[in-house]
Amino acid sequence: MKLLVPTDFSRPSKTALLYAAQMAKKLQGEIIILWFNSIQSSKKTLSKWKKLEAEMIAIAQEDAKHLVEEVRTEVKGNLPFTYHFTSGSSFAESVDTYAVKNDVDMIIMGTKGASGVKKLIMGSHAASMIDHSRIPVLVIPEKASFKPLKKIVYASNLYEWDQEIRTIAALAAIYKASVHVLHISPVSSKSKIDKNLLPEMIKTAGYQKIVYQDVKSDNIAKAIDDYIIANDADMLAMFTHKLDNYEKLFGRSVTRQLAFHAHVPLLTFNKTLLI
Fold first, then answer.
1. What are phi and psi of 257, to 5 degrees?
2. What is the pLDDT of residues 197-249, one digit of tens each?
3. What is the CATH class of 151-270?
4. Strand order through the sheet with 2-7
5. What value, to the nearest 5°, has the Cα angle with vertex 210 and ends 208 and 215?
6. Where is the UspA domain (predicted)?
7. pTM, to two decimals
8. Helices (DSSP H) in the chain: which residue ranges?
9. What is the CATH number of domain 2-141?
10. How far apart (Å, rounded) are the C-alpha atoms in residues 115 and 120?
């Protein structure tokens, strides 16, 4: 399995690399460290950029080597790391293009979060990656540390659970973790829980360690957070979609909200783009 870790050598990106290294040990995977540099499209800027490119790459590779040495000291083991460089006008599009071309299985990145106007308008690299990636993205909170997966919360609107749960169960099976299917209903909802739903999920997934929980709340993001904390979950998994103009304006996407303040790693699948 190929794990891609975009880095700017900050503390959040080191946290992501540590997490990726622990996953790679379990999955017998390899880690690609990717450094991205933003460039403008003007001829003048591109001309200057070419003169600096070789030197900047050399510096980034040296920083990457030091980062890998720190990670190997903490993780223990001779994990395969490679260093690569990419540039472009868009972080998310450049990383996604690189990942697809190089058959990457998962993108793992850290996030420090954002607040206020920055969260609403600018977002973050993590939220941007969630929007653009054709490959699963695992977002690691800055203060998170790796724990072998025992409980994965799969938050779902249940529209396409039968297509999604197989993917979550496949990951859970590697760690023999339980899958908590979590559905948040409005407080005013009068719908009753389908007693046949859980048996159907277990049968469809081909995996026994699945539980189902329906929670009443009008604040979906908070309800998910509360459930994660109450059940001491190790990872949150969600399938997301492209934002429409209304969502972009008011920031209504639950997945993107949780990318900023989730207490555990957030694994996202953009079901409109996945290849």
1. -65, -45
2. 999 999 999 999 999 999 999 888 888 889 999 999 999 998 876 554 433 43
3. alpha beta
4. 81-88, 30-38, 2-7, 106-111, 137-141, 266-270, 235-240, 151-155, 178-185, 210-216
5. 160
6. 2-141, 166-267
7. 0.83
8. 11-27, 43-75, 91-101, 116-117, 125-132, 161-175, 197-205, 220-230, 245-250, 254-261
9. 3.40.50.620
10. 8
